[in-house]
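so my prof wants the structure for this chain in the tokens format not the other one, which i didnt know existed until like an hour ago. anyway here's the sequence
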Amino acid sequence: MDENEWLADRFEEHRVHLRAVAYRMLGSLTEADDAVQDTWLRLSRAGASEVGNLGGWLTTIVARVCLNMLRSRHTRREESLGVHLPDPVISPEGMLQPDEEALLADSVGLALLVVLDALSPAERLAFVLHDMFELPFEEIAPMVGRSPAAARQLASRARRRVKGAGIPAPDPDLARQRDVVDAFFLAARGGDFDALVALLHPDVVLRSDFGSRRPAASVVTRGAAAVARQALMAALPAAHLRPALVNGAAGVVVTVGGRPFAVMGFTVTEGKIVEIDAIADPERVQRVAAAVLSDE
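here's what i got, hopefully its the right format
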């Protein structure tokens, strides 16, 4: 085995971990893959002959790459284009694959990623690396050009934002989640407003992301009555609902005429739907839901 093959094998040992770091940092599966690939290119150029802790070195590199990507994104102010939901991890119902489990460890749901998107790039890096991957602030500080004390403050501010968001914890029973989601679509297709309201938490939140081509339609709807009315208007008799796991929770991939239409993730707590995250950008749905659509 030559040096390049040895280096590639060592990198592959860390790929799943690096992708998990990048996904939490960026909330985009495509960008996370790009960041991991950039990290490999940097390793292949630099070599590992003088690297004592390759895993730590790679984590630092992928974090720096992600930080630069976040800063570029922040400069473009993509958030001005309306509601933007992070990429969900979508898989067929059943056991998650090992790489999917790594992406979703620490209960990384869409609600958490939405909160992380609202942080500054430096706050997000400090929180992700310290609170999720237990890196010491002495290692985080140089990445953000701050002292360890200042890096600690960044993570503390981010932690307060995350806790203040009151992210609901989904029911641990997936079968119970699925029953509630199935009842939601049954009521929507049947035009049963009262049944929909009964399934929704009074303070339910619906986030709708129609993509950059329809920013005006990308909005947040709050309250059981408002979300129920939206569900009744959006019910499509010709739609086919494919059950799926959306970030480990019950959800669906929607197709119309065999074509991708939407992905919907649900947070069900104590038998009530407290959050719905809907991505209705067909091109994006095709990309993120490929594992479910492949056998459509």
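also thought this was worth mentioning. The beta strands are 90-92, 200-209, 220-222, 239-246, 249-256, 259-269, 272-279.
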